[in-house]
Here is the input.
Amino acid sequence: MGPNVSTVRRSRGLTAETASRAGELGRHVRQVGQPRALNSVHIATFFAGGAIGSQTGSIVCHAYGWTGVTVLGTLLPILALLYWATEGRASAHTTS
Here is the structure.
């Protein structure tokens, strides 16, 4: 059993809000004087990451339903936290 139409509409609204915030971030970066090339790379990377994340969520929802989406939504931040925690220790050892 897949998501209903109202759920899909809400998720599209969240995607549009995220894209809007990315635009705001891009304007802010330009205002503080970052070079345009760096700003372009940042926005392109941000957009690509969002697109990959959206597609991954859709694939997982289609294959495993909301349980899979919930597991994915729980697992990814945990992995990011573990990466962040170990990356800080690795850089501290190399600077000593």
In short: Helices lie at 5-31, 36-95.
